[in-house]
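Lecture notes, unit on protein representations.

Consider one protein chain, 675 amino acids long.
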Amino acid sequence: MQPNNLTALDFGDIKASIKSYLRTRTEFTDYDFEGAALSYLIDTLAYNTYYTAFNANMAMNEAFLPSATVRDNVVNIAKLLNYVPTSIVASRATVSLVVQCQQTSDVYPSTVTLKKGAILQGGSFMWNILADTTVSVDPTTGIANFNSLVVKQGTILNFSYVVNTFASQIYKIPSENCDISTLSVNVKATETSTTSDLYTRVDTISNLTATSRIYFISEGEDMRYELKFGDDSIGRALSDGEVVTLEYLVTDGEPANDVNIFNFIGRLSDSAGRSYTSQAVTMTLNEKSGYGESAESIESIKYNAPRYYSSQYRAVTAQDYAIITKKVYDNAHSVVAYGGDSLNPPIYGKVYIAIKTKTGSLLNDQTKKSIAADLRGYAMASIDPVVIDPENVYIYPKVFVQYDTGCGSDTSTIKTNVSSAIEDWATQTEINNFNSTFRSSAFEKAITLADKCVSDVSLQTTVLRYILPTTNQTNTYSISTGSALYNSAPSKDGSDGTNPKEPILLSGSFRTSDRPGVDQQFEDDGYGNLRTYYNTGTRKIYTNNAAGTCNYDTGEIAFGPVAIIGAGANFSTTGVNITNTSTGAGSVTDSTLLPVDLQIPVQFIPANSNSIPASTPGTIINIVLPEITVAPVGTAPPPTIPLNSLTPTIFDQTPSTVAITTSLGSTTNLNTTSY
């Protein structure tokens, strides 16, 4: 008889299988007696089989990327795909320094140099600049300005190797928490040489010659990175006696974020050789510390490695652009890429890349141009990559909860539980990301299950978008809602001269160049037209009944042409001349005094609140912290279509949204999509 249960991995199952086999043999009789010597031999056999089976199972699992669990094994498989996991990233902050220099013989020095290394102390961390920085000194005032200095948290270390071609040609960075983006590799001919060559990191062998001064990097054991140089065919090979110097930053990563108090401890010297202490320095914090991250997780490596390999260092499909963007811009939390041919109307020859940053901030124009320039190195000749900001849509739900008063929970407890349930729901759905859809049924279900006493849930759902006008320029601003808008009476066209329909959209307040002295808003008239007005007491004074259009079927809104000079109720009248205090009429006298970075909220009611999709692939749906009302069973809920409760003025500032926590941490970067 052959042993049964050959696939058993449990010790007890293996032992039972051996005993079952021995029952078929007449040579042994005491195998089933625990005190017998044969029983101990069976235990030994079972243990041996168990460990052998376990090791074989682990060996097979660790040989494949989807099933591997040990980081070193995952990294080794990723090496076959030429994927280098992201290292720990140093937190960075931005400061400006003003140095008051001293005179020598009544003459100020020409320059001041800030030495590389630690220059700030903040939050129990040291903050560094990675190279000497020299600025000019004002010859009249003796003031030197170090503007927008980027400082990184950590300690700068140096490590050197003397090349021995008879030994291993792998050069390890001995520190575990090395931010490889700060790595500088120099090679000099001998230990006594005063000059050195800077070597550049590369990922591919394209365009390399036998003399290219390059190195390749990969993650080795215990998260310590390794360097390899050329072989005189692909890149220059190192020679005996040469000295390889590695300089890098060892950092704490994410724990150093959000520091906003710093003390200057740097070294300053001027062109006359004079040194300066902190008393001569005035420091201004431009941006608190952020962007620090932990090393890339195992889950992220397993997700990204095959997708990065599939791009083959060439951006052909939209997916290629999305994956490569994550490599060239490390502050990207999630990326979506789509061809211009998918737009309406189509735009051929362009691919659009929308980036959601890890900090939540928008990219400036310089950063966008830099990313686009990096992507052109991978792009096909006829395709122009365009980096854009995500289009944010905010869903504002008002939650009305009815509860059983005899169940045991009070209104405060229920409201707390409902808030927690909404956060859990948002985390599970990752609603505030690309390619998401708001479904009210799942939202209501999460609230219903929040507390055993919840009897019924009803929602009032409105959608919020922002217009970002350019100050004092006449423009028409378009909003695409992605779905139809609520139309209370589509059969009525208003031809009878009456206006029984209620507005379903309303803007926040703004001021225009022709009426700088009054806050205006716009709404629809129920028939597809936008009209502007201002309030006088409880009356609306309409200023333009043809201020734009609204298509209820497609959800397309166009406002303008209009010249907006300010937004929000606290707009200053500086720089304008008001000729009529009642109507707000006037003109702009100095456009340089007008506010910038304007935003106007526009709130509207969707036709179908059960499912609200993203309007474009680059749209992110966010959930505004909801207003929660808890009432006993029997209390009449408000109407589901809140025709009279549009209040966009409370959204003059970007609203607070439901917080999302990812189970994989801030460095997972798994949200890369394309169309």
